[in-house]
Design goal:
By secondary structure, this protein is mostly helical. The chain has a domain of 35 residues. 29% of the residues lie in helices and 5% in strands. The protein has one helix and two strands. Strands 1-2 form a two-stranded antiparallel ribbon. A hairpin with a 6-residue loop joins strand 1 and strand 2.
């Protein structure tokens, strides 16, 4: 008795792999939505870092170096 399996009627296309994580992606664009947001966040973070390096925040003169520390006990 032969146990041959029938050939599939529809040939499956090779699955697209996500360029970020490398796993098979079933979405239309070929990239997972969560991986796409990770890529967008990475670009946004790099832009903000460049802006911060170009325009450093001014030093606040209102902070006093010898301010009262409520956690320290005073001697009677």
């Amino acid at each position: 008795m032969s146990e041959k399996k029938p050939e599939p009627l529809i040939r499956a296309e090779p699955q697209q792999k996500c360029p970020v994580c490398g796993h098979v992606s079933y979405s239309i664009g070929g990239i997972h939505p969560q991986c796409h947001s990770v890529m967008a966040d990475r670009k946004r973070r790099e832009l903000r870092a460049e802006e911060a390096r170009a325009n450093p925040p001014p030093v606040q003169a209102s902070k006093k170096p010898g301010a009262f520390n409520g956690a320290a006990r005073l001697r009677p």
